Amino acid sequence: MSRLLAAALTVGAAALLAVGAALGIVALLDATPDQPNTPLITYEHAGQER
């Protein structure tokens, strides 16, 4: 009976660990990185025609 209890506890612990890891990965993927709001291209003379 103790082997069955040990196996059940091991399966339960492994399931909790897997769910925790999955939630952690999802939380990391949802995190938005800090990005500056600066344009990569700037035009010196935006309103003038050539």
Secondary structure: elements and pairs:
Blueprint (H helix, E strand, L loop, with lengths): L1 H29 L20
Explain what this protein looks like in three dimensions.
This protein is mainly alpha-helical. 58% of the residues lie in helices and 0% in strands. The chain is built from one helix and no strands. The chain has one helix at residues 2-30. The N and C termini lie far apart (88 Å). 0% of the residues are buried.
Order of helices and strands: H
Instruction: Give the overall pLDDT as a whole number.
Output: 86
Strand percentage: under 5%
Number of strands: 0
Major sheet attributes: none
Distance between the termini: 88 Å
Instruction: Give the structural class.
Output: mainly alpha
Radius of gyration: 27 Å
Portion of residues within helices: 55-70%
State the low-pLDDT regions, or none.
Answer: none
> Given the C-alpha coordinates, what overall shape results?
rod-shaped
Number of helical regions: 1
